[in-house]
Amino acid sequence: MPAFACAALLASCTATRKVAPPEAVLPVPEAKQVAWQKMETYAFIHFGLNTFNDREWGYGDSDPKTFQPTRLDCEQWAKTLVAAGMKGVILTAKHHDGFCLWPFEGTDYNISRSPYKDGKGNIVAELAEACRKHGLKLALYLSPWDRHQANYGTPAYVDYFHSQLRDLMTHYGEVFEVWFDGANGGDGWYGGAKEARTIDRKDYYNYPRIYEMLDSLQPQAVIFSDGGPGCRWVGNERGFAGATNWSFLRKGEVYAGYPRYPELQYGHADGNQWVPAECDVSIRPGWFYHPEEDDRVKTPEQLLDLYYRSVGHNATLLLNFPVNREGLIHPTDSAYAVQFRQLVLQELKTNLVAGMTPEVSNERGGDYVAAAMTDEDYDTYWATEDGVTAADITFRFDRPQRMNRMLLQEYIPLGQRVKSFVVEYRADDQWLPVRLNEETTTIGYKRLLRFETVESDAIRIRITDARGPLCINNVGVYDAGAKADVLFTEQKSQLESRPFTLPGVKEEQAAAATDRNEQTTCFVEGDELVIDLGEERTVSSFHFLPDQSEPSKGLVANYELWVGTSPEGGQKVKEGEFSNIQNNPILQSVYFTPVSARYLRLKATRMIHEGETMGFAEVAVR
Ligand code: FUL
Hints:
By secondary structure, the chain is an alpha/beta fold. The protein is 18% helix and 29% strand. The chain contains 10 helices and 26 strands. It has helices at 3-16, 31-39, 49-53, 74-83, 123-134, 155-171, 207-217, 300-310, 331-347, 507-512, and strands at residues 41-46, 88-94, 137-142, 177-179, 187-188, 195-196, 222-225, 231-233, 248-249, 273-274, 277-282, 315-322, 359-360, 382-383, 391-410, 418-427, 430-433, 447-466, 471-478, 522-524, 528-545, 556-564, 571-577, 588-607, 614-616, 618-621. The strands form 6 sheets. An 8-stranded parallel beta barrel has the order 1-2-3-4-7-8-11-12, surrounded by 4 helices. A hairpin with a 6-residue loop joins strand 5 (187-188) and strand 6 (195-196). The longest helix is centred in the N-terminal third of the chain and has 17 residues, at 155-171. The chain is globular and about 80 Å long.
């Protein structure tokens, strides 16, 4: 064959040579889970009777007449959320108190019994409309636990709950997610019975029937619950996932009330079901609006930190806005959220490797080449050959660059693969690891790294282990600017207090309650914490921060608060529950009519875990 013919044949062979993509490594996501994960940040709105009754968990007895927002405007919510970069919003259509924000005919306990719009209001419909107008996706939260309904705990309630869900899923257009809260604290009003009712959280609500209903009414919706099936709770309400975060769970293992819930931060490395993590967190300490939290809104920097630890840890960020009593997102929350968005954009503004073709130590060929990692196309990716589960990706620059952030994405439609990697930069002809404050193990949909600034003409990613051939679709390297190295450390809690001692508590333990170090905890034997102010003082509130370890220990669920002039006896000024203390162990405050007393006595009438010693990271009295 003449040489030119041979070359022509070769050229045509190369052009038509079809390289197969790597085979999927199971489990893989459904298309709707990939679309959901690409939303990255979306908002929660907690709003309802609790807003007007200063509660986190309504008991189910608040009067619907108290629901009277004065300037409610769902468009203000939508516009704020869009400006904050949120791609969707999830509304608490019904929280644990059972009150429906839409006129659901199955109960009187709904918005039509409130003064809002003379009973003609419908917040689900109003928000759906605002979302359509402003390009936000809508989703709905419907609490399975209902502290209002008399039949809660019986099969009749399950039918009620299902018809409520059907109603909600039928009239308001497409939803991107359906949120089933796993909480069930037992106590409730229950039609006046005022008692504790426990149900079997695995089976009572008949979820298989619910999934069937949702599959036919809202097939595109991802279903949230502690264990999925669409997406999972991340095991805390602080807004972060583990740096190691697998988007899998062992099928059927996790349910609401799963005792090993802290492991949800990491997923199950050997899981067989795709259930990615969602990080839910409130922009304020509580989920619902409380005026005294107006100066405790998370700052743009705190939110940025959470962004890196949620979206940047292969999860989504579900950021809650407690709509206030006017029916608006408070100006501080709105300003901080928008500034947060700007910080994210600023830090990751200029991708230093955009359009560059890195050197790679292995390449599959065909469409799966190194240039695919920097072409900004989600669906093109570099892959290694079959059997190759470790490789280097190296970027070389013409001149040294300042670098301190990195973005990595795996092509998850084919599964999550990477188990470990290191990032290195070249310094004086040797490769040194960058300094970061977390492990570099998994990547998943997205991994963002913050590392100490380096100046170098080369940076490389060494992937050292994976569950199959590598499939990386996106790499970014950035200089986040002057403040890049200020890694956020949590602000010390500002717990002002009258001076006090804790009689009967060992000195070292007592010190932990007043050292304003959230990481040390004072453990108190018995069921009473006695506080001695040294002399009679006017007091009107008691505060404590629960143990902050993961998971928290010594959590008091229900309490009585007594005050008096001696350590025993006195008068009971308050009793109640520390709502949601297990999932969200934030500062707990008990306010009461000012009274003169020397001693306060907190009596635990129920612990979250019976038999545990009470734990207090910080205590304050004012
Ligand atoms: C928890 C609930 O108990 C809280 O009140 C809040 O709704 C949070 C998002 O989920 O389980």
